[in-house]
Amino acid sequence: MHDSLQLTSVHLRVADLARSLDYYTRQLGFVLVNATPTHAELAVAPATPALLTLTGDPSAPPAPPDAAGLFHAALVFPTRAALATWLTHAVAVGVEFEGASDHEVSEALYFSDPDGNGLEFYVDRPRSAWPFAAHGELAMTTQRLDLPALLATALPPAPTPLAGARWGHLHLRVTDLDRSDAFYRAILGMVVTQGTYPGARFLAADGYHHHLGLNTWGRPRTPRPATALGLVSATFALPSVTSTRHLADPDGIALTLTPTPS
């Protein structure tokens, strides 16, 4: 665990709650722990805290293509075998993937939910294997993932294929890298771990590769509409926070800060 900063929950607004629940539970393997006609809370296993909230709103408009907002929310698995075992489940139930990458710090699978919300499921490589540039900055890259090698580590199917996973990082589209970088470093106490990736910046605490990715890919120009489909808010826990705080970043993306869970 990365104790001084944790992404503890993500809240998404979706157009069809029943459709999204089917996707997140039957296809991805989340467990429904609480539901009303318009809201659902999901966990990775029974008797574990909810880490994903879905709010259904058929009247909510899609966000404009040039708006800031979610690029992807990323769930990290405890072991390579756990990610591989989940992948065998996902293939069996027909999850459609958009990419699979080896970033040298991690092995990652990419896809989107029915509303186009980006998701990444990944596993970290050992920190001793992470690549660094001569000046000390991380040197994450994007290469083709060796899927046969990953699948070779899979274990027999599990009834809760996401057990042990947690949110690892959040990646956002923003309108101004420097402005968002300064905001998140001040609010979350992070440092830049890689600033040379074209059109993107990566920040973290605790020596992690990144708890937050920021990019301007596609040239977003407008703030995140508060009532649109997509990311409603993300919750980060920090030991310096003594009571819950609600705020918004420079692009109108809502954040909640909470004390670190005991």
The overall strand count is: 16
Work out the count of structural domains.
Answer: 1
Q: Which second-level CATH architecture applies?
A: Roll
Describe the biggest sheet? 9 strands, mixed
| Low-confidence sequence ranges | none
The CATH class, by name, is: Alpha Beta
Instruction: Give the full name of the CATH homologous superfamily.
Output: 2,3-Dihydroxybiphenyl 1,2-Dioxygenase, domain 1
Shape: globular
List the defining traits of the structure above.
262 residues, 4 helices, alpha+beta, seven-stranded mixed β-sheet, 2,3-Dihydroxybiphenyl 1,2-Dioxygenase, domain 1
Outline the fold blueprint.
Blueprint: E1 6-14, H1 17-27, E2 31-35, E3 39-43, E4 52-56, E5 69-77, H2 80-93, E6 99-102, E7 106-112, E8 118-124, E9 143-144, H3 147-151, E10 166-173, H4 177-188, E11 191-194, E12 200-204, E13 212-215, E14 230-238, E15 245-248, E16 254-259
Give an overview in words.
By secondary structure, the chain is α+β, with helices and mostly antiparallel strands. It has a single domain (6-259), classed as 2,3-Dihydroxybiphenyl 1,2-Dioxygenase, domain 1 (Roll). 16% of the residues lie in helices and 35% in strands. It contains 4 helices and 16 strands. It has a 9-stranded mixed beta sheet with strand order 9-6-7-8-5-10-13-12-11. A hairpin with a 3-residue loop joins strand 2 and strand 3. The model has no long low-confidence stretch (mean pLDDT 96).
Could you give a quick summary of the protein structure above?
With 262 residues, this protein is an alpha+beta fold.
